[in-house]
Amino acid sequence: MNPLRDAKRLIVKIGSSLLVDDATGQMRRGWLESLAADIAACTARGQEVIVVSSGAVAVGRRKLGLVPPLKLEEKQAAAATGQIRLAHAWQDALAHHAITVAQVLLTLDDSENRRRYLNARSTLETLLRLGAVPVINENDTVATAEIRVGDNDRLAARVAQMVSADALVLFSDIDGLYTADPRKDSDARFIPEVRELTPEIEAMAGDPGSAYGSGGMVTKLVAARICLSAGCRMAITRGEPMHPLKTIEDGGRCTWFLPSSEPRTARKQWIFGSMKPAGTLVLDAGAARALAQGRSLLPAGITEVNGEFERGDCVLVKDTEAKVLGRGLVAYSATDARAIMGRKSGEIEAILGFRGRDELIHRDDLVMEG
Ligand code: GLU
């Protein structure tokens, strides 16, 4: 098993300290280029790659002459100027491999609010389909303290969950999880593989304050919890060496967190288990057949819309005999769904005044009964 090579969809998270030289505030271009070459090797063999990159504050702060500790608004100002440079550096590095980069700035809401979540997810899916590499960071300039994700470990895990990624690699300044902080405790043992986050494993991260690894092991375990529930394999490894992705692919040391299910199964369990249906769509026989064949649900096949729901809510799907066929996340509100039911997807814009999605429920958002 090589979780990195096997991943169809791979997320790579890079912390500020790897990308930005602490002493000078300059970006470590040579290292970035070696990582870009690794990413290009992945895309060349058909893998989809998303980058979650920190560094906006670290790069921007010096340009504005700011000295730590920074106040929240100073961090935001630093991020505003640093993010441009960060995106440029990624663009340059990947352009050498003829890869197009797309900047995506997310807030907590985009990953946790279901309506926003569908938008962010379809944008990312579209970029990947078109062969671009999305470079994601938190939208630091508008996110205030209470609504910040705060750390990109967790943001990266949320992204992994959102796009059903197969693997996430967190590059850190430590090569994995140890039974205790190896810098302080010479008895600390390395843990190569974790299948379940037991209290014993959680305890290994130590207190948030004294956590080892610059981003802290605690936030990495929070990310691991999200990944395990999303069916995404996650690695913690040292990012410092040149060609850091190739290094772990070739067997370099890292801790793998290995979930028991696949991303698609996990996503379906999530839709099934955690959401109460807010309404019902009744389908004609043709749409019921299309669904049974694994296709998406189009407005044309709907004969009735019951209940009040918003875009992103979970709804039941029934046939004309009221038999439940499945459930899924709906891409239109109940009002809009009523307006477009029975109509062709091509007519949606003329009816609603905006061009929404062709599908009422995308097949990835649909779980069939039984
Ligand atoms: N979004 C922040 C930045 O780009 C970093 C957050 C983190 O490193 O976890 O500077």
TrEMBL record:
Residues annotated for substrate binding in this entry: 54, 140, 152
Localization: Cytoplasm
PUA domain ranges (all copies): 279-361
GO cellular component, one term: cytosol
Domain of life, source organism: Bacteria
Predominant localisation class: cytoplasm
UniProt record similarity statement: Belongs to the glutamate 5-kinase family.
Membrane spanning stretches: none
Keyword Magnesium: no
Gene Ontology process terms (BP): L-proline biosynthetic process
PANTHER family in UniProt: GLUTAMATE 5-KINASE (PTHR43654), ISOPENTENYL PHOSPHATE KINASE (PTHR43654:SF1)
Physiological role: Catalyzes the transfer of a phosphate group to glutamate to form L-glutamate 5-phosphate.
Enzyme type, top EC level: transferase
Keyword annotations of the record: Amino-acid biosynthesis, ATP-binding, Cytoplasm, Kinase, Nucleotide-binding, Proline biosynthesis, Transferase
Catalytic activity, as annotated: L-glutamate + ATP = L-glutamyl 5-phosphate + ADP
Protein name, per record: Glutamate 5-kinase
Residues that hold ATP according to the record: 13, 172-173, 214-220
Listed HAMAP family: ProB
Pathway: Amino-acid biosynthesis; L-proline biosynthesis; L-glutamate 5-semialdehyde from L-glutamate: step 1/2
Gene Ontology molecular functions: ATP binding; glutamate 5-kinase activity; RNA binding
Alphabetical list of InterPro entries matching this protein: AceGlu_kinase-like_sf (IPR036393), Asp/Glu/Uridylate_kinase (IPR001048), G5K_ProB (IPR041739), Glu/AcGlu_kinase (IPR001057), Glu_5kinase (IPR011529), Glu_5kinase/COase_Synthase (IPR005715), Glutamate_5-kinase_CS (IPR019797), PUA (IPR002478)
Catalytic activity, EC: 2.7.2.11
